[in-house]
Specification:
It is globular and about 85 Å long. It is of the alpha+beta class. Helix 1 packs antiparallel against helix 2. It is built from two helices and ten strands. Helix content is about 20%, strand content about 35%. It folds into two domains: about 55 residues, no CATH class; about 150 residues, Jelly Rolls. Strands 1, 2, 3, 4, 5, 6, 7, 8, 9 and 10 form a ten-stranded antiparallel sheet that branches.
């Protein structure tokens, strides 16, 4: 009776099992989130509070740069530009105590950050992205015409937070969107135990073949060939 060699076992059984295990590994996925800041907000800063954790359930929080964060207001507040969608936007005015911009932080790694910004003049806006190690990974600047929105877009992955600032003290932002990167845990493929067991069989057969070879060599030494 002929037994399969370790090479034959690996070729016929373990190679397909390993291939199946690799095919069932999960790749990171992502889902898109859009925030339009529609809350039925008032039109004046004195009637609202700074935006901080309102959207934490969507994985994003806001903190001010150079002062308190911006507030959600109705477009009738006299910013020289209407809301891009709906009637509300995220507004800034340093004369009313806000900072020059916001740090937008994400609870999970993020990619494809987009935010629309504008005012009644023609100011410049900058968005700078950082990873989970607080290392800068990219920046972009736009200078839209007065009354027109410009798009701040950062297509990088592994974004932990983005700093958005303006050269103008009075400005608004609207329609924030981003992709949250997630990794789904994958159950142990059924082929992996077979693969591990096969490795054990190869090891056992290898030891038996080594022991058999050693016995044959010892026999040839102790029992010289018969004379012809």
């Amino acid at each position: 009776m002929r037994f399969a060699t370790p090479k034959e076992i690996f070729t016929r059984v373990l190679t397909p099992a390993l291939a199946f295990a690799c095919l069932t590994c999960a790749a990171p996925s992502s889902f898109a989130t859009t925030i339009d800041f529609e809350t039925g907000a008032p039109c004046c800063f004195v009637d609202t509070t700074p935006l901080t954790t309102l959207y934490s359930g969507l994985g994003v929080t806001f903190s001010g740069i150079g002062g308190p964060p911006g507030s959600i207001l109705d477009q009738s507040g006299g910013f020289g530009i209407n809301a891009r969608s709906g009637v509300d936007f995220l507004a800034f005015n340093t004369e009313f105590g806000t900072g020059t911009g916001d740090q937008i932080s994400f609870s999970s790694p993020t990619s494809n950050f987009v935010l629309y910004v504008g005012d009644g003049t023609s100011a410049s806006y900058t968005a700078t992205a950082y990873n989970t190690l607080s290392q800068q990974i990219g920046t972009t600047t736009v200078t839209p015409a007065g009354g027109v929105y410009g798009e701040l877009s950062l297509g990088f992955s592994d974004i932990a937070y983005v700093n958005v600032t303006s050269a103008n003290g009075v400005w608004v932002a609207d329609d924030l969107s981003f992709n949250t990167i997630t990794t789904t845990a994958t159950p142990l493929p059924a082929a992996l135990p077979l693969f591990a067991g096969g490795l054990g069989v190869i090891g056992l057969m290898g030891r038996r073949r080594t022991r058999k070879n050693a016995v044959a060599i010892a026999a040839s030494i102790l029992m010289p060939p018969s004379p012809v």
